[in-house]
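Title: Comparing notes on inverse folding

I've been comparing how different people in this forum approach sequence design from structure. To keep things fair, I'm posting one structure and asking everyone to reply with a full sequence. Here's the target:
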């Protein structure tokens, strides 16, 4: 039985795909273990639906976490909804002054708070250039 080159190439591609599937699986498992080691009482976390809060209590048997989102507001969520441990506030503001460009043009996405100059007063009246029509001419 002769093995043609096409069969060898197909088996090699299949082996590479299987290798990458196992590799990605191991990476995801390592990331999940790392996340679970960081999740502890007192940690500020984000859920998969974008809710930020501080962990007050964890129930290992029921896989539930009590999150305090604002002072006095406590939510009970499933432990697997906690997807990220927040190390710093995503809404932190910087005290650095905004650098405006020297040419007067705003940068992309920058808002200008100054009102636009009124250009209607500087343009000549449009009716002044038209000759007047006389009745029967």
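Reply #1:
Here's my take.
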């Amino acid at each position: 039985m002769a093995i043609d080159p096409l069969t060898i190439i197909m088996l090699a591609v299949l082996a590479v795909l299987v290798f990458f599937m196992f590799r990605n699986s191991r990476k995801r498992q390592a990331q999940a273990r790392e996340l679970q080691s960081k999740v502890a009482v007192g940690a500020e976390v984000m859920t998969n639906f974008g809710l930020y809060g501080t962990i007050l209590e964890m129930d290992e048997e029921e896989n539930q976490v009590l999150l305090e989102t604002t002072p006095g507001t406590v939510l009970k969520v499933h432990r697997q909804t906690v997807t990220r441990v927040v190390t710093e506030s995503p809404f932190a503001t910087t005290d650095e002054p905004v650098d405006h460009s020297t040419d007067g043009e705003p940068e992309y996405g920058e808002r200008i708070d100054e009102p636009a100059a009124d250009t209607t007063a500087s343009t000549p009246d449009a009716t002044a250039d038209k000759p007047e029509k006389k009745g029967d001419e």
